[in-house]
Amino acid sequence: MFVLWTSLAAAGVLRxxxxxxxxxxxxxxxxxxxxxxxAERVANVLVELGxxxxxxxxxxxxxxxxxxKEALHAHAMVAGAFDDDLFTFYYSGHADARGLRIGSDLYPxxxxxxxxxxxxxxxxxxxxxxxxxxxxxxxxxxxxxxPFLYEERLAAEGEAWMTATSADESAQExxxxxxxxxxxxxxxxxxxxxxxGDGEVSxxxxxxxxxxxxxxxxxxxxxxxxHPNMDIRxxxxxxxxxxxxxxxxxxATLPADxxxxxxxxxxxxxxxxxxxEKVEGRAVTLALSPxxxxxxxxxxxxxxxxxxxxxxxxxxxxxxxxxxxxxxxxPKGEQVALDALELARQQAEHGRAWTAEALNGxxxxxxxxxxxxxxxxxxxxGQFYNGQWVKGGLYFAGTAAFxxxxxxxxxxxxxFWNGSITGPDMLRLTAAMFYGAAIxxxxxxxxxxxxxxxxxxxxxxxxxxxxxxAVGAPYTAGMNVEWLAAKGLSVSLDRIGWTHTPAxxxxxxxxxxxxxxxxxxxxxxxxxxxxxxxxxxxxxGDPVLMPTIGGGGSVRWYIxxxxxxxxxxxxETEGGPAVFLFGxxxxxxxxxxx
Length: 594
Known about the structure:
With about 600 residues, this protein is an alpha+beta fold.
């Protein structure tokens, strides 16, 4: 992570980075919960405080070895086009003594180091947050001295590697931190906790800060203490500066007289974003994104807190700490001494019923119920409530445009639904997708309580499918109930429903399907095989029950962690020639996130 200021940009120095997060490690390895989220956080800090243009930061979630190789090659091509550049590689995920474990692929450490060393970059920085990542670092390099940040040309050449563990240790992640220990404390340091007073955080400062806290906070875990490692081989005139605190979109300063451990928790989702071991006599400034934060100060058994709102450009000094009631089920005759982070977690999980969380009556600026209701009454109104004016306008315009196009289209049925919950055509289905998305998006953004979508559990959705030969109504429509039985495999009840055709025929459908899926961060493509039956009741004659069999593919897009829209292509036979069907639907994902 390197800083790119305007003067350096003018001199032609490029800062670029490849950021990789992989929750899946293949084989019998337990999936990680936070590796991909850690990657996203690192990318945000690069752009926010490291001066990176987002166009020069590549973020990969769960790539294959081939995709990782191609991305490294692409950055090598970029490096070759600039006389001066700094390249950063970050990886969070599984690894063993041989290399990175990305899904079913292995990317050897030697290959990774060779790929990066072959780049024509002046400085290369690697950061690995994975088990046994210390295998990649063997030799120690030179010590750092004075910063060279403001030199017109790069004053450092070579490479540096920072790893979360030594060669024989396991990297650990924490549900309390909602991320890995190493990345959490590294990012805390880069936001300003590691700054020794000059307003910028160097490589050495960030590493020292992360090392001390990782060793301290993993010492009591079941896996035991993990020891970060660093290998520096730089030809340079000064210390390698990583971030500049003043570049933050907003800052909060802890005054010199504050003493104790300070946790910074983003509200309302209660995600820990920074931790400072505050000593007396030195002020500490943290760079934060605009938003509401709760600062919790722990001084032995004494816990105090203050909640502040940071707008764009805010420069606030944190003061007016209030008393915090930490009496959460203490054993008889004892006083509970919870650290501030544990207290925040318990209050988040057990402090209020879900109904109170949904309404959030104590802070109506962030009420999911009010936001969702607003978009229910008028698509986009919930986004206006959340201050997302452009998005709200797009939701309103999209819903109105597709609904109006369907209603006023030539030959539109007088029956608004025309025998299907999503209407007679793709235009009205798309309007329904926009409408549902507006409601889900408004409720979620008013109080983000989940940072990643579920990968297990069950879903409920509606699907409508059309045939190119049919006009005026879906070929079939109904509800789906899906159970994610195992990683990459789901079984479901398929299209349980009724359709009324323009010819007056009533059609009842019931089926099941088996689907192989690929779980991505927001997209979930899949292939399926479906069997079932369809009961046709014509205006003239007796009802006929026809067996059906078909197959095809679908792509699901998660607009929020719980709400999705889906598109489907299917080939199906009903006792006769095969019929090509296309369409989609919308639904909700239940179950545990992660």
